[in-house]
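G., the chain you wanted modeled:
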Amino acid sequence: MYTAAAALYPQALATSITLPMEILQAASQMASVRKHGASQVHFLLAAESSEPITLSSGITLQPDRSFADLPPLDLLLLPAIWRNPLPAVNAARDWTGLLQAEAAKGTRICSVGTGSFLLAEADLLDGRPATTHWNYFAQFSRRYPAVDLKNHHLITQSDNIYCVGSVNSIADLMVHIVEEWFGSPIARAIENQFSPEIRRSFRAAAYQNEADSSHHDEDIAQAQQWLQSHLCSPISIDLLANHLQLSPRTLNRRFKRATGMTPLSYLQSLRMASAKDLLRHSNLTVGDIAWQQGIQDVSYFSQLFRKHCGVSPLKYRAAARGKLFNPEVPGRP
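Predicted structure as tokens:
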């Protein structure tokens, strides 16, 4: 059982709460099939008090817990702040200590849009990469000069602190978390359910201050970076092991211990993420896309894609592109 909570404040944008909540609850329902129907995610709404909170949009939400009564958390979500974030930042001064305490416990904390102002105000972003809503880049930089603002990334990660620039990007991050918690098949099902045409993989969208900051094996971090940089080339585990001056057996053992995946599985996940981007945004044939992933056998590539994504490459392209906005609507000038 995983426990997630969203912090409530009057200026919070409701969709940055409800979308992550629905994604995690959907994943919980799918995962519960294997656990005899037992819920796998408990999602809470938390605030300074137990009184209902009316958001700027007029929606009223009832907190489940006060900040003081929160149970141990796996995930704490800071919703986007509607319009100028500073009033919300000033109003939150009494409870930003909660963020410092949760960060010290290792809780994964995720801010959406200008919710990153709260993390910066709590001194959790100094010297770290971060992002925020694009309209507030200049204000954020002036107010928090010690933060390494990444203007060209929609997601940043530094250890257990995540920032995303938009509501769409929190969906990308939630799919990543679902994959970590429940595995690739459930993550792919969730991704396909929640608008595949706007999704990008976490690895494609995120700036991370290490190749994988959930572990500290420098050799394996180097292996991940090497795999990423040689994505389009034929790769063997023996070649990677030789590059790292490790035996293949030692490489496999340490890689799986550090990442939860074998080097081959990790490489395949990188290639499938790249292939999905090309299927969405290019007119390359499936054969050309396979070749760009270092896979010469188109049939094998299609089988691999179906295994990871649940559909064939052509069906994925049709589903993704079928919902893309087309400005050439008949009757328009």
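The chain has two domains: 2-205, 215-322.

Shout if anything looks off.
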